[in-house]
Amino acid sequence: MAPLPGSGLAKGLAVTLRTMTRKSVTAQYPDTQPDLPPRTRGVIGLFEENCTVCMLCARECPDWCIYIDSHKETVPAATPGGRERSRNVLDRFAIDFSLCMYCGICIEVCPFDALFWSPEFEYAETDIRDLTHERDKLREWMWTVPAPPALDPGAEEPKELAAARKTADKLAAARAEPQEEES
Ligand code: SF4
Ligand code: SF4
């Protein structure tokens, strides 16, 4: 049967009326900030104290957009007659976010927990060169990284906590010893 004349128009108007009465879902950014999930991939933060300059992140980055420079330093032997050691010292750590594709591989492969996702995303620039964030800027992003989620109740305690507690106990015992001797 042929449709009644004007039925298409009526259907269209019905849809318009229905959607007009619905609550709008459009957020008026930047007046309203989006409520982002904690695991949002916004920008990468560097916790450089944990970085050993192993270069794994730079080697695995598919876009080759991590730039690391370092030099070696000799650390004197800890005990008399011991061996000197050498360690890497970080000179430059930068990420070019104009090339980064936010795959997260660098964060996944870092064996020392030195890279983290931050949900911050407001770092657009008018000059593309400013999208290369040097270590100071990457460090600033660290303060915007959300705390890790709490462990499941009943989960096994991470071995790092036990090791930290053991070290703290040893230090406390070493500090208490001279006081006991004095008294
Ligand atoms: S997120 Fe991916 S593309 Fe970006 S720096 Fe890390 S490894 Fe490279
Ligand atoms: S993988 Fe981690 S420890 Fe190694 S250079 Fe990259 S950030 Fe530093």
TrEMBL record:
**InterPro entries in the record, alphabetically?**
4Fe4S_Fe-S-bd (IPR017896), 4Fe4S_Fe_S_CS (IPR017900), NADH_quinone_OxRdtase_chainI (IPR010226)
Task: List, for all copies, the residue spans of the domain called 4Fe-4S ferredoxin-type.
Answer: 42-71, 91-120
PROSITE patterns (alphabetical): 4FE4S_FER_1, 4FE4S_FER_2
Query: What EC number(s) does this enzyme carry?
Result: 7.1.1.-
Q: How is the cofactor bound?
A: Binds 2 [4Fe-4S] clusters per subunit.
Task: Tell me the membrane topology, using the record's own terms.
Answer: Peripheral membrane protein
Q: Which cofactor does it need?
A: [4Fe-4S] cluster
Reactions accelerated catalytically = a quinone + NADH + 5 H(+)(in) = a quinol + NAD(+) + 4 H(+)(out)
Q: Report the subcellular localization.
A: Cell membrane
**Gene Ontology MF: a single term:** NADH dehydrogenase (quinone) (non-electrogenic) activity
> Which residues bind [4Fe-4S] cluster 2 per the record?
C61, C100, C103, C106
Keywords from the UniProt entry:
4Fe-4S, Cell membrane, Iron, Iron-sulfur, Membrane, Metal-binding, NAD, Quinone, Repeat, Translocase, Ubiquinone
Q: Where is the signal peptide?
A: none
Its GO CC terms are: plasma membrane
Query: Where does this chain mainly localize?
Result: membrane
Q: Which stretches does the entry tag as region Disordered?
A: 149-183
**General function of this protein:** NDH-1 shuttles electrons from NADH, via FMN and iron-sulfur (Fe-S) centers, to quinones in the respiratory chain. The immediate electron acceptor for the enzyme in this species is believed to be ubiquinone. Couples the redox reaction to proton translocation (for every two electrons transferred, four hydrogen ions are translocated across the cytoplasmic membrane), and thus conserves the redox energy in a proton gradient.
Oligomer status and interactors:
NDH-1 is composed of 14 different subunits. Subunits NuoA, H, J, K, L, M, N constitute the membrane sector of the complex.
Record-stated family: Belongs to the complex I 23 kDa subunit family.
Name of the protein this chain belongs to: NADH-quinone oxidoreductase subunit I
Q: What is the lineage of its organism?
A: Bacteria, Bacillati, Actinomycetota, Actinomycetes, Kitasatosporales
